[in-house]
Each structure stands twice: as C-alpha cells, then as structure tokens.
Design goal:
The chain is 11% helix and 34% strand. By secondary structure, the chain is mainly β.
C-alpha cells in the first residue's frame, strides 16, 4: 500500500519502561500528563508535501539505511494503525476510524541535543520499516482481532539471533482502543509546540488536512540485547506480530502473522 499521501505520526511513551531504556525520559521532564502512565505526546515522522526533511518519504520494506554520519540508531518495534481522519467544518479532528494494522520499525537515532522528537526520526528514504501485510481491524475495542496479537522483535548479527524487544500483548499498551483513540483526537487538536513536542493541528493544516493517518502507537520495552546494542551494517531486523492462539511466534511466514524483515545497510 502506498502511504505517500498519508500523514505519519508516532506516540511517545505508550509502553512501560521504553523511554527510560532509550535514555529519553529527561526530554519529557517538563511535559505534564493527565495520568502517570499516559503517553507523553504525538510526534510527526512523515509530512506529505512538506518542504522540510519530514517531507521525505521514509518508509521502506526490506532494507534500512543508516545515516551517512556516525549515529546511534535503535530499532523501535511497534504496531502501526491506519486511521481514517474525520474533521468537522472547522477542521477539528472529531473521529479516527481504525482500518487495519501492521508492524513497524520506528527506527530512532539517540541524538544528544535534539530539540524535537522528529529530529531523531527521519534521515532518508529508508529510515523506517513496514511489515509484509496488513490485518483488517474488525473493531478497535475489546473483543476485536487485535486482542489475540502479540508483538515481538529480533536482531540477527553474525549468524546469531537475539531477542530485541520484549514479547508483549498488544493489549499491554498503556493506552489502547477507545482510550488511545480519544487521547489521539485530543492531542491532534490541542497539542502545542512545547519542549520535544510539536503542534499537530498546524501540521495537519500544512498537509492540506489529509484523509488518513498512519500512526505508530508506541515501542515496546527492550530486551537486554536491544537496550545495549545499536544497529550495525549487516544486521537483520525482524519485527513480528503474531496470533498467540496459534502458537506462531517464530520467523516463518504464516497467514495470520505480520513480519517486517529488514537488512541494515
């Protein structure tokens, strides 16, 4: 599916311990949230039609290209959801309709001194990764297809396969389903330019109010190898969503499994 006309947004801090492990908790020290476990905010990673670096379409499938400068890059294993955006007559977002989901690598540079999250998120055509298929969301609420899914990730280096992120149920996200959707709508309308965050309503306006948003809903916590190792050329990345009722968590393809497999260049 071509996402070049779809705004790309991410959720920061929607899984316990991820920000601490990534060394990014300090970036959000002045960001106040309604609840202790609430996500910190939304950030853009792709703005269709923008003249800025975020206007570069950055989502690849089978390869990840590291920046051409020395960078500490880590996989961020995520689930991403394609939403239809519904606006009112004043161009306020009033609804998000979840259509389908896939796996996503929101690969991030651990960059000292970055003023905005987005500065760590996109550096070229192959700085992100998307899974090999989509699964239709029958309902974005308890009892829907996503209830059954887990997310896991691995990195293969020098012939050895390491767990990269923890194996986690999708319902383990801090905010999910209706709570996440309501929070997203609120932030798309009201988030201001503050600290590492940006004004999302202004981005929507500048992108001529896109009809859809591709939203990565948060990275899992890291396993020990993922926390301590940055990406190197030659690594192979696997981000996998699997149906736990099928006992199907390996690397082999199946009808119900989504696999993102990237070679690092």
């Amino acid at each position: 599916m071509n996402l070049e006309n779809v705004i790309g947004l991410g959720v920061a801090g929607n899984f316990a311990h991820h920000l601490e492990q990534a060394g990014e908790l300090k970036d959000f020290e002045n960001v106040v949230t309604a609840e202790a476990n609430a996500p910190k905010g939304i950030f853009p990673f792709y703005l269709p039609g923008s003249d800025s670096f975020l206007g570069q379409y950055c989502i690849g499938t089978d390869r990840l290209e590291l920046p051409n400068y020395e960078a500490n890059a880590q996989v961020e294993p995520e689930i991403a959801v394609l939403f239809d955006i519904v606006y009112d007559e004043d161009k306020q977002v009033i609804d998000l309709i979840a259509k389908k989901f896939t796996t996503f690598n929101d690969c991030t540079i651990r960059k000292e001194g970055a003023k905005k999250i987005s500065e760590k998120k996109s550096w070229g055509s192959y700085s992100k990764g998307i899974g090999d298929k989509w699964i239709v969301i029958n309902k974005f609420e308890k009892g829907g297809v996503m209830d059954k899914y887990h997310l896991c990730s691995f990195l293969q280096r020098n012939g050895i396969l390491y767990p990269y992120g923890v194996d986690a149920p999708l319902v383990g996200y801090s905010y999910f389903y209706g709570k996440l959707k309501s929070w997203l709508i609120d932030k798309m309308n009201t988030q201001i330019d503050f600290g590492p965050l940006e004004n999302i309503a202004e981005h929507l306006r500048a992108c001529s109010y896109p009809h859809q948003a591709f939203i990565s809903i948060g990275a899992t916590a890291y396993a020990e190898f993922g926390e301590k190792n940055y990406l190197q050329s030659g690594d192979e990345i696997y981000v996998i969503a699997y149906d736990r009722t099928k006992d199907d968590s390996g690397l082999e393809p199946s009808e119900t499994k989504i696999i993102l497999h990237q070679k690092v260049l």
